[in-house]
């Protein structure tokens, strides 16, 4: 067992996309902080701790997925890209690491709550967000691990949408702005839809082996061809939600709209390329492209809104 095995099990390429919900949440909440010296002063400190918490949760999910897929039979020794299935990390050590990382992520989340709300003494928002934090840890673990993983029953898409969309973006925004706006659900829908699109690609690529292992993902349930149409619908839902928020509800408030339009076009071209794919193995390069481009788009939202990039 070596450090490189733990790094591989962490699946570093998934981390930028996981961080997207924090970037989007920070972008939409930034204008709301300008009227408060306290919120402006603590913005980047709180943002940094939230970002670290979400990254830890994603690594936790990846480790639990590595262990859970082996325990539940979805992965065997042929999966040399998996740390537990390949034998490089024992199931007991991975389970212990998951528990330790869950504790670390929980403490990190508590620090974010403390930094955000301690100075103003807002108890009830802190308790609500604490409950969401505990739910996030449970969701990261139960995706493919445990006796009844929801990822094996086709609920992974819904949970990813909620935790990397509405809850992730909304929770970040509340921590940073100490307020709530239902309009924030629109950019949160963009974030959730992009993350679900990546999950859908992963499930499309693995749908044959998943079906054999009894892993009833949404792709297995709907079939490979229908999953292509579902994939396109995710991009349409996400980007329409974003443009309604940015061009109609907050017209003139967002910088860099031309570049954001280019990123939108990149995603639509990707979705149409997926339509032409017949061999699931060919989806792996597309998976990497859409994950990276979505993370770049989320980062650009934040940089543009905070004035760090030009129009």
Task: Write a concise keyword list for the protein shown above.
311 residues; mainly alpha; 73% helix; globular
Describe this structure as you would to a colleague:
The chain is an all-alpha fold and 311 residues long. It has helices at 3-10, 15-18, 20-29, 37-71, 91-117, 123-142, 156-177, 185-205, 207-212, 218-222, 224-249, 257-276, 283-305. It has one domain. It contains 13 helices and no strands. α3 packs parallel to α7 (156-177). The longest helix is centred in the N-terminal third of the chain and has 35 residues, at 37-71. The N and C termini lie far apart (49 Å).
Category by helix and strand content: mainly alpha
Low-confidence stretches: none
Radius of gyration: 19 Å
Amount of beta strand = under 5%
* Cα-to-Cα separation, first versus last residue: 49 Å
Task: Give the % helix.
Answer: over 70%
Helix count from the secondary structure assignment: 13
The topology string of helices and strands comes to HHHHHHHHHHHHH
Q: What is the residue-averaged pLDDT?
A: 86
Number of strands: 0
Globally, the shape reads globular
What kind of sheet is the major sheet?
none
Q: How many separate structural domains?
A: 1
């Amino acid at each position: 067992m070596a450090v490189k095995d733990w790094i591989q099990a962490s699946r570093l390429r998934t981390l930028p996309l996981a961080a997207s919900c924090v970037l989007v949440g920070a972008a939409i909440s930034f204008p709301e902080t300008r009227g408060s010296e306290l919120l402006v002063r603590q913005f980047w400190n709180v943002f940094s701790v939230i970002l670290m918490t979400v990254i830890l949760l994603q690594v936790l999910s990846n480790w639990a997925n590595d262990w859970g897929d082996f325990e539940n039979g979805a992965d065997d020794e042929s999966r040399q890209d998996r740390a537990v299935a390949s034998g490089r990390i024992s199931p007991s050590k991975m389970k212990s690491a998951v528990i330790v990382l869950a504790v670390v992520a929980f403490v990190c989340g508590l620090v974010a709550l403390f930094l955000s709300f301690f100075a103003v003494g807002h108890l009830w928002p802190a308790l609500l967000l604490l409950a969401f934090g505990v739910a996030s840890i449970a969701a990261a673990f139960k995706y493919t691990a445990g006796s009844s993983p929801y990822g094996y029953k086709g609920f992974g898409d819904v949970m990813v949408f909620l935790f990397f969309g509405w809850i992730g973006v909304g929770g970040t925004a509340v921590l940073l702005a100490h307020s709530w706006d239902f309009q924030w659900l629109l950019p949160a829908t963009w974030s959730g839809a992009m993350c679900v699109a990546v999950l859908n690609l992963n499930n499309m690529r693995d749908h044959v082996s998943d079906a054999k292992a009894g892993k009833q993902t949404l792709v297995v349930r709907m079939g490979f061809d229908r999953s292509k149409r579902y994939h396109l619908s995710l991009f349409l839902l996400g980007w329409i939600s974003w443009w309604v928020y940015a061009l109609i509800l907050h017209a003139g408030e967002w910088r860099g709209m031309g570049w954001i339009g280019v990123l939108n076009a990149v995603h639509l071209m990707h979705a149409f390329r997926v339509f032409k794919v017949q061999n699931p193995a060919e989806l792996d390069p597309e998976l990497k492209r859409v994950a990276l481009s979505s993370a770049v788009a989320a980062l650009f939202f934040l940089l543009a809104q905070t004035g760090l990039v030009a129009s």
